[in-house]
Write a structure and sequence with these properties.
Layout (H helix, E strand, L loop, with lengths): L1 H25 L7 H17 L2 H25 L11 H15 L8 H16 L4 E3 L4 E3 L4 H33 L25 H18 L4 H9 L1 H16 L9 E9 L4 E9 L9 E15 L5 E9 L4 E4 L7
């Protein structure tokens, strides 16, 4: 029985201690405290949710200021340092809130600029107290000691360097999204880019150009009188080039690399007809100084057919390769 009472009292004591701890965190010991700022931020956001127009933005603005002030106050009362530095973890949290407040928006709270500026802002927040001495009621500016200046410079410079590398990541990511054909290239000679995925063997956009161009060319040539086909082939450079521009504009409109592709034909005689090579040529940056291009060959031959009157005429029959070929180097000269 005594053991039971002890267990019951132990539970009550634990509950009482837990309640006291929660109360200490939630109930401000005085009006001027970090809890007050947090509650003001929550109150401001509730009000901004109910408001409209520019009043909503003004209230939300003060809500962010209260949140940043309250978080900074709480995390600097008993600072926990980032290992290997004198930067408080609170400065990292506050720096993130400041960065979100400065560079976020309603659609995307966390943007690339938010992440890029986060380390630098955190370092500046860490360095600011080093230039102030005194307490909350009597504070004045001061110049840090020489040994402190060195720590501050190293911390801020290191954080700025980290921000630069993060920015470089976002730049590379944007390049690869806008210029996906770069993924088919090699980065073996790069000193700062490391490939973490399997390389793309053939640039997708180059294949798309030829896949969309082929049926258009086939439609204009197939079952066309042979004399007209030969005239078409004589003017193939202009015709295929014009068709290629339309295909690129239609199918690569969302990519900035559309300006770096061009389409050209190559026509060669055979014993029985012609070979028409459709080339999609990459003119952008490449590890190969001569660039590269993709080719799809079409064989055009004359065949006998009957017209509407029943008379026999010679028309063209065209057959194209199923797959495009990736060829490093410059395209062959036009004949």
């Amino acid at each position: 029985m005594n053991t039971l009472f002890k267990d019951v009292f132990g539970v009550f004591k634990f509950t009482e201690g837990l309640y006291a701890g929660i109360r200490k965190v939630l109930v401000p010991p005085k009006a001027y405290s970090w809890q007050t700022f947090i509650y003001l931020s929550i109150f401001s956001w509730v009000l901004s949710y109910c408001a409209i127009g520019y009043i909503k933005d003004i209230i939300a603005f003060f809500g962010w200021l209260f949140l940043i002030a309250g978080t900074a106050w709480y995390t600097t009362e008993d600072p926990l340092r980032v290992p290997g530095t004198f930067m408080p973890v609170g400065a990292v949290i506050t720096g993130f809130l400041v960065s979100v407040f400065a560079f976020g928006n309603q659609q995307d709270v966390i943007t690339p600029r938010t992440i890029v500026f986060w380390p630098t802002i955190s370092a500046l927040i860490t360095a600011i107290p080093e230039f102030i001495e005194g307490n909350d009621t009597d504070a004045k500016a001061r110049i840090p000691k020489p040994e402190d200046r060195q720590r501050i410079i190293i911390l801020v410079a290191s954080s700025m360097l980290l921000s630069c590398w993060i920015q470089f990541y976002f730049v590379m990511d944007n390049w690869l999204r806008q210029y996906p054909s770069l993924q088919a290239d090699t980065f073996k000679r790069s000193t700062f880019v490391v490939r973490t995925e399997q390389p793309v063997k053939i640039p997708k956009n180059g294949v798309v150009i030829l896949e969309k161009l082929q049926p258009i060319v086939v439609e204009q040539i197939a079952q066309t009188p042979w004399s007209e086909v030969e005239k078409w082939l004589l003017d193939a450079k202009q015709r295929v080039g014009s068709l290629g521009k339309e295909v690129i504009e239609k199918n690569l409109s969302k990519y900035e690399e559309k300006e770096l592709w061009r389409v050209e034909p190559r026509v060669a005689n055979t014993k029985s007809g012609y070979i028409l090579d459709l080339l999609s040529i990459w003119t952008g940056p490449s590890s190969n100084p001569r660039g590269y291009y993709l080719k799809k060959s079409c064989r055009i031959e004359p065949v006998a057919a009957a017209n509407n009157s029943g008379n026999k005429i010679t028309v063209a029959e065209i057959e194209c390769d199923r797959l495009s070929k990736f060829i490093p180097g410059a395209p062959p000269p036009q004949q």
